[in-house]
Amino acid sequence: MPLQVLLVEDSPGDARLTEVAFRAADETIVLHVTADGVEAMAFLRHEGVHLGSPRPDLILLDLNLPKMDGREVLTHIKEDDSLKLIPTVILTTSIAESDILRSYELQANCYLSKPVQLDAFDELVRSINDFWLTKVKLPQQMQS
Amino acid sequence: MSNIPEQREPPVVLLVEDNLGDVRLAREAFRDVNGSIHLHLASDGIEAMAFLQKQGVYVDAPRPDLIVLDLNLPKMNGREVLAQIKGDTSLKMIPTVVLSSSETDADVLISYQLQANCYLRKPAQWDAFVGMVRSINAFWLTNTRLPPKTLNG
Questions:
Q1: How do residues A89-137 score in pLDDT, each as one tens digit?
Q2: Which of B96, B86, B35 is nearest to A105 (CA)?
Q3: What is the domain-level CATH number for residue B126?
Q4: Which residues, 6 or more positions from B138, have their beta carbon under 8 angstroms from its beta carbon?
């Protein structure tokens, strides 16, 4: 079964970059994009237009999002007994120590800062793929 | 240039592992991969918690940047250690990577339920083991932003 990645990202440019980088790293990966926190939760809860959405194997979550920010999304995910099992990686431009600390307190699985340069960005996505989607044992896909 | 966050001090890694052979493998692998790492060892769950809580002989123990945790440990098993770490307001921020020879779904599931940052299967062969340590180093000690230690020492 192909791996499903949910990217929660409000910048269409960054979303596109991520999509291209993942396709280059592993073209079997299916990347879903939601552009705000409310849509992300709807996707994860299979609500509304996201009724048939697949359960992601990995969530990449930006912090600064419209409607519901990434910190709130992270809180909701980790408070849910089923969703909290999905590795949730913060992928953000913020390098503020308070953001890093808060994310780990909220049990983000890890925190990555988005590189500005394109080849560094590609390299980061490759390392995410290499570590989280290749080396790491993910919890077995369950019905959510 | 890749996106390497500034690491002001050498990384401190706590390895919780009771099997002496695996400890030796891990020490050599970590040394090969990144000579700047300060690797500390706890050989059972009670010792691990004493180290983390700076108790007894561990009163001056450094706070780890990363914990690598086996599940099958004497005195207090890895699941219990994980539960204690993630239940502690000060310790729960420390990324805790389960590195276990177990591949059973139940062990993987419980680890994620207890909020292990990730679960890795311990390879049996040297080359693969070094490769795994290399990946841990590349991802956790190079690419990842680790929580600051300033507030909790």
A1: 999 999 999 999 999 999 999 999 999 899 999 999 999 999 999 999 9
A2: B86
A3: 3.40.50.2300
A4: A127, A131
Residue B10 class from Cβ within 10 Å (0-12 exposed, 13-18 middle, 19+ buried)? middle
ipTM for the predicted complex: 0.93
Q: Is A104 in contact with B108 (Cβ distance < 8 A)?
A: no
Cβ distance A113 to B3 less than 8 Å, yes or no, reads: yes
Helix boundaries (H) for chain B? 20-33, 45-52, 78-86, 105-113, 126-138
Size of interface A-B (CB pairs under 8 A): 93
DSSP, collapsed to helix, strand or coil, labels residue B27 as helix
| Residue that the structure tokens 């979303």 belong to | A15
**Structure confidence at residue B153 (pLDDT):** 44
- Report yes or no on B5 lying in a domain: no
How many domains does one find in chain B?
1
- Reduced to 3 states (helix: H, G, I; strand: E, B; else coil), residue B12 is strand
- CATH number given to A4-133: 3.40.50.2300
Nearest to B2 among A84, A120, A139 (CB): A120
- Cα–Cα dist A69/B10, whole Å: 33
Q: Tell me: the pLDDT tens digits for A20-65?
A: 999 999 999 999 999 999 999 999 999 999 999 999 999 999 999 9
Measuring CA to CA, which residue among A41, A38, A33, A35 is closest to residue A77? A41
